[in-house]
Hints:
Oligomer: single chain
Strand content: 5-15%
CATH class of the largest domain: Alpha Beta
Number of strands: 12
Strand order of the largest sheet: 2-1-3-11-4
Number of domains: 2
Order of helices and strands: HEHHEHEHEEEEHHEHEHEHEHHHHEHHH
Amino acid sequence: MKKFFAVLALLVMLLAVSAAFAADEPEAKVIKWGRGNSGNILVTIAKNHGYFKEYGIEIDEIPMDNEGVFTSLLSGHVDVLSNFGTHMPLRLIAAGDPLTIFGGFMLTGCMPVIAKAGTEWHGVEDLIGKKVAGSVSQYAVTGPLLDLGHDPMKEIEWIQIPEDSDKLAAVINGTADYAIMGTDQNYSIQNMKDVIKVVTYCSDLTPNYSCCRMETRDEFIKKNPTTIKLALKALIRAQAYYEAHRAECVDMMAKQLQADKEWVAAYMMNEHYRIHVDPIRKPVERAWGYLDRIGILEKKDGVNLSDHLNITLYKAALDEVIAEHRNEDPEFYDRMLAFYNENDA
Length: 345
């Protein structure tokens, strides 16, 4: 009898918790989401499977390229960005701009470092004394060099080339010895194996380097904490679906972007392309440290990174999704909790 009442009490508690979750009402019903060139498959899954709708949220995706995206965010043209790196949000935060990182998308982008075909590669120190098409702010490359005692600002000749297609040309014609390429260039690189070689990937040099974080304005997250939490719940569930249906998600993303399936598969099916909703506090703090050591954080007095890195809403979302959906994929949700404990707690 005691066991019966114990089970009954547990059921009542779970029902009460579920009712409390269901009662959450988003402050803002619509989130204007800036979408990068390679898309955000988690947003696409959550929209297609009705996860956002279930939580009373609509996502208005606004296609954007790199130019002016953070001006659009700070001005309110969009509310959330998720495809535009980690170094630029950190530089803006350091300068005093009111941005908060609250989640993630690409944990490691499929970012190759390329050279001419036939180039031997022994490790990141091969870049020392060479001409590299890229930026010293790409801390997944420069961070390990700092840790090895190098000064990548002085020991590498950085060639500033905005367009990745021009970086390819620079390597081919010898203007650059190496180039650090973007995720969306993998298809082009795969089709140039006779002249171009991928010598390494950024994620080989710095594991879990935080390719792209999700950020919003301080004001938006303060006014809409429940909206943000519910959006994170939808995205966590989308990540569960993605990990179980990766090939299907290639088709989904290609349709969303109106792009060739082969172009999307070239990065999404690559083992170096890893996505995760977790805000990953520790790797973001590591990135902040690398950028500071490189000397490109123009820090305004009184700016504290912890004031602009919100892990509380993600943890609340994760706890609620685990309570509601763990039985659907226990292994996945146990991994998510372990990952949070490793990277945030």
